[in-house]
Request: fold
Amino acid sequence: MTTFDYAPAPESRSVVKISSEYGHFINGEFVAGANHFPSINPANEEVLSQIALGSSADVDRAVKAARVAYEAVWSKMSGRERGKYLYRIARILQERAREFAVLESLDNGKPIRESRDVDVPLAAAHFFYHAGWADKLDYAGLGHAPQAHGVAGQIIPWNFPLLMLAWKIAPALATGNTVVLKPAETTSLTALLFAQVCQQADLPQGVVNIVTGDGSTGAAIVDHPGIDKIAFTGSTEVGKAIARAIAPTKKKATLELGGKAANIVFDDAPIDETVEGIVNGIFFNQGHVCCAGSRLLLQENVAEEILRKLKVQMAKIRVGDPLDKNTDLGAINSSAQLSKIRELSESGGSEGAERWSPECILPDKGFWFAPTIFTGVTQAHRIAREEIFGPVLSVLTFRTPQEAIEKANNTPYGLSAGIWSEKGSRILWASQQLKAGVVWANTFNKFDPASPFGGYKESGWGREGGRHGLTAYLKSSQLSHKEGGVNEDE
Ligand code: NAI
Ligand code: MG
Reply:
């Protein structure tokens, strides 16, 4: 069979203008920062811009601006009026979608196909969805006239920079809170472009404030006495530190943390669709996905066939330039993340699992990791227990459905899971046994603003999205803890 190489199809980067240096966005204006650090393109290590390192004084100014905006404007405005701003932001995101997609791929390293088709449209969808809620909060089953908390401090990670911003800002604004948001240090650029969108939408000053910086800036937000509610997505380690920091305070928190999702394949699964779903489950966004299907559980009698087909499929994954429209797997977000992926993968080999990657030529510059699978993995191996957060799949096998459930739940995490089976009854049975906030059946990594997302156990507290997600931003919630608010594990 003859195969043809794909000709390069690069998206033009001329649609984005990147300043050589940025400040913070406080009270509706860009203000200069004192110290800066570089943001680089992880695909070639080019410095894109200098980002301001927010100090506690910067955070203080932002929190004060958010408080004034909350008291003087946003809390007094009707839901209907707030909704108009959210619709306006959503439409501007759509109009400027190409600009956002290119900037996201440049700063994060993810393929343009994904930023264009997933991150940016979903970010706009979150604003549209929550715009619709803004004037209907009385009818959300949360009691009469539920009240906002006030000022929300929001700290987000680098894997879906704009999308995580939308997950945080859209529900906060819809429910009448104002925000101080900190993007991750490696991926601040789309948040800063979003600040321009706030100006373009004539959003009242101080309703959205963006302070860039690192963990120290995040900690200053968490510790600030003027913050009423924290929303965090990131590592379990930092999530625990935040929980400890706010324990003696009245601050509310939602924490979206790590995962080690089981993707379970039963022997009656439709094989070809399943193989595609496995690939999407672990290699989407370079595996930098908290809900990635990183533990594949195969029923023993189909394991050989699935693995054979999976390897064929993996050999077709195109790794390279994130701006090329043909690229499937882009760059690893940072050298630190690459070191973590390498270290854990090496432990897989030394602990006795068998490693396999297709032949693929990685670029010389930048941070890259070939799609990798480990077979012969046992539950004791580090690669079966720890979040790798990269394009690395650990494969385990099982004989009976009960054994699959036991292995799937044998983890400190509980964010997501996948089930592949043709039998509806088996899918329903398994999804009830699995301790995971989201269970996908015969699909994986599907997101919708109407669908609540969040974890059990060490994967976090609370839900984001849907009606459940609104409760995190409102005081007089009548949803029980079980239904929405707190950890559903108990
Ligand atoms: P991280 O948890 O350190 O960073 C996430 C955000 O928290 C960033 O904005 C960071 O500046 C901020 N932050 C860091 N320390 C803080 C503190 N003490 N107080 C307040 N905010 C703080 O995650 P990192 O170091 O980027 O990644 C490490 C690992 O975490 C990854 O390898 C992955 O396993 C996991 N991770 C999980 C994510 C998820 O979506 N659940 C997202 C990012 C990372
Ligand atoms: Mg960057």
User: Anything to note?
Assistant: The radius of gyration is 22 Å.
